[in-house]
């Protein structure tokens, strides 16, 4: 896995600007159904409202690809990127906990946090799905709203590095998200390298209440942990 570049300068982006970014990123990381693809003008207008030039440029580049690619190709690319690859799942607690009882508790805590702020999940939707976490951050804001993003900073960085390795345009969305998150510490980098090399715990118990319908749409089943060989671990 390519060594990730630190995301920096979170304090230089105001909370209102981060909220716009998180909301747009949440939309663009969902399955690109016909409604999303046909909303190109609206999405481009939302990107234009982001004042930070670097962040706006990242979204503009992604939307240029999205709007210039045949919808079926975009949909196939999404499935191949997020649903069929071990290294690029969108379920954040899996990076740290695997299928263990600890993951079950982490999902429960997330769900309770959402409920406390009035966010209800769709049927079959897990609370650690990155678009859901981003939507929550946009709606609730700094503090409670952005806390799950900070707590899963390491998993998000692993995902960003995997998407960068793949060369997928979706890497641009993760670049924007990580840009406004706290900078990685040396401890974070060490933990990311260990996670990338060792993978998650493998105890497969305690997850039944959170196991989605295997036939749920848009990749609702648990995505496998992104593993990589020792030479690929972030440095």
Radius of gyration: 17 Å
The proportion of strand residues reads: under 5%
Number of strands: 0
Q: Please report the number of helical segments.
A: 12
Q: What is the H-and-E element order?
A: HHHHHHHHHHHH
In short:
The protein is mainly alpha-helical. α10 (153-166) packs across α12 (186-198). The protein has twelve helices and no strands.
Q: What would you note in describing this structure?
A:
- This protein is mostly helical and 235 residues long.
- Helix content is 56%, strand content 0%.
- It has 12 helices and no strands.
- The chain has helices at 15-28, 34-38, 40-48, 53-68, 71-83, 92-97, 101-116, 130-140, 147-151, 153-166, 170-179, 186-198.
- Helix 1 runs antiparallel to helix 8 and helix 4 runs antiparallel to helix 11.
Question: How is the topology of this model organized?
Answer:
Elements: H1 15-28, H2 34-38, H3 40-48, H4 53-68, H5 71-83, H6 92-97, H7 101-116, H8 130-140, H9 147-151, H10 153-166, H11 170-179, H12 186-198
Question: Any key phrases for this structure?
Answer:
single chain; 235 residues; mainly alpha; 12 helices; 56% helix; 0% strand; disordered N terminus; disordered C terminus
């Amino acid at each position: 896995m390519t060594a990730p570049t630190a995301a920096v300068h979170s304090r230089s982006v105001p909370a209102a600007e981060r909220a716009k970014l998180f909301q747009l990123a949440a939309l663009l990381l969902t399955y690109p159904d016909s409604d999303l693809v046909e909303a190109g003008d609206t999405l481009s207008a939302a990107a234009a409202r982001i004042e930070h030039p670097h962040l706006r440029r990242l979204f503009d580049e992604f939307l240029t690809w999205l709007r210039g690619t045949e919808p079926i190709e975009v949909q196939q690319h999404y499935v191949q990127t997020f649903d069929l690859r071990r290294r690029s799942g969108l379920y954040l607690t899996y990076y740290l906990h695997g299928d263990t009882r600890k993951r079950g508790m982490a999902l429960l805590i997330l769900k309770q946090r959402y409920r406390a702020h009035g966010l209800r999940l769709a049927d079959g939707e897990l609370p650690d799905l990155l678009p859901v976490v981003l939507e929550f951050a946009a709606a609730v804001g700094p503090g409670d709203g952005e806390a799950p993003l900070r707590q899963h900073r390491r998993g998000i960085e692993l995902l960003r590095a995997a998407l960068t390795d793949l060369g997928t345009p979706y890497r641009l969305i993760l670049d924007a998200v990580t840009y406004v998150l706290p900078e990685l510490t040396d401890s974070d980098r060490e933990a990311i390298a260990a996670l990338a090399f060792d993978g998650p715990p493998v105890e497969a118990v305690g997850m039944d209440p959170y196991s989605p319908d295997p036939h749920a749409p848009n990749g609702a089943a648990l995505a496998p942990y992104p593993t990589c060989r020792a030479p690929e671990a972030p440095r």
